[in-house]
Design goal:
It is built from three helices and no strands. The protein is mainly α and 85 residues long.
């Protein structure tokens, strides 16, 4: 979740361009794939609500992604570990 929040803060301060517009955004997409949703945000009537929904979605999706990777890694670790009695 810290990665997603860091990516969001860098994007909101203009360090990272949305989607594929710079090398920084490609690196951000590598570490935080839900950052692709930054393309979806456009001019809306209630920009603060849209921004809050976008950030919440990116952070939650990245947390679920890394939790799944960790669970898969733990499964493979326990599967390959030899139990000694």
């Amino acid at each position: 979740m810290a990665v997603a929040i860091g990516v969001y803060l860098a994007w909101s301060h203009g360090i990272i361009a949305p989607a594929f517009h710079s090398a920084g955004s490609a690196i951000a997409l590598f570490f935080c794939p839900p950052f692709i949703l930054s393309i979806a945000i456009g001019p809306t009537a209630d920009a603060n609500l849209a921004q809050a929904l976008l950030v919440g979605t990116i952070v939650l999706a990245n947390a679920v992604l890394y939790a799944g990777v960790a669970a898969g890694g733990f499964f493979l670790f326990t599967l390959t570990r030899k139990k000694r009695s």
